[in-house]
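Researcher: For the annotation table, I need C-alpha cells for Signal peptidase I. Please keep the output clean. Sequence:
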Amino acid sequence: MPALTAAVLAAFVAYAGAWYLGYIEGNFALLLFTATVVTGCYWVAERLWFLPRRRRAAQRLEAQAAERRERLATQGIQSSDAGDVSIGRERLLMQPWWLDWTAGLFPVILVVFVLRSFLFEPFKIPSGSMIPTLLVGDLILVNKFTYGLRMPVFNTKITEGRTPERGDVVVFRYPPKPSLDYIKRVVALPGDEVSYLNKRLFINGQPVERQPVADFFDRESMRYGKQFEEHLGGKDFRILIDPQRPAFIPGAEDFPSRDACRYTVEGVTCKVPPGHYFVMGDNRDNSLDSRYWGFVPDRNIVGKAFFIWMNFADLGRIGGFE
C-alpha cells in the first residue's frame, strides 16, 4: 500500500504541475471530485480494516507484556517494562504516512468539495471587463444554489432553483471553450430581442434607463472614463462607455444561432434563443461578451456572483454588489 499510495499522490502532483505549467488544460472540479473519492476510499479502509488491525496488534502486545509480567512474578521478579509497552502501543496505533496523506485529509477535502460544489465557490477577477462593478484582483463568492444545484463534473441539474434575471452578475463556462470561467452581467433573457446600438441598450424595443454620473478614475491606467448608472431588472449598477471607440462590433465570431443576430455599423440586434442568455460586461467597450461570441446556454451557468470577500490592494471593497 505505501508504494501504491506514493504512485497515486505522485499522479496528483504531476497533474497539478502540468496544469500549472500549461502543458495540459486542467479541470479543478474533476481533480477535487477524484481526490474526494480516492481519500474517501482510504478513509473507509482505515476505519474498517487498517485501524482495527493496528488495535488488535496493540492488544496482542499488551497481552504478551501482561503474560510476561505474570511469569516473572511467579519467579519473584518485578518487571519494569511498562514504559516500553506504552511506547510500543503508541507506535502500533500511529497512522502511517500514507494514511495521513489520504484518509487523514478526507474530512477537509470532503468539506471543500461540498462547499464548492453545492454552496459557494470563490473566483478571482482576472480582467477589467466588469469595471466599475468589479476590479482586477477582486476575490468574489459565487452562489451555486440560487439557479439550482448541479452535479459536480457532470453538470446535471438536481434542483431547479430560479432562473437568472436581467441585471444578475453570473459566472458561466465560456461557450467557445467551456473549461474557462467567465463573468458578465445578464442583460437579456430567452425570447428577448436585445439591441446594443450606438452604445445604448434596448430590450424588446425599449431603451434601458440610464443617466450620467461622475467620471470613473481607473487607478491601473491612471485615466478617467465616462460612467453611467443603468437600471435593469430592478437593479441599479454603473457602466463605463468610451466615446472614442466605434459603435460597430468588430470581429464577431461564427457562433451557434448567429443568424438570430443582425450586425450593422450601429451595433448589433439579437433574438435570444430558448434556454440561452445574452450577457455583457459593465465595461462596455472593453468586454469580450455575447456581442462577439454569442449566447450563454443555461447548462453553462455556474452561479450568481454576489460578494467581494477580499481585495488585497483595497480592503474597502469587501462587501456585496449588484
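Researcher: And a one-line annotation?
Model: The longest helix spans residues 28-74.
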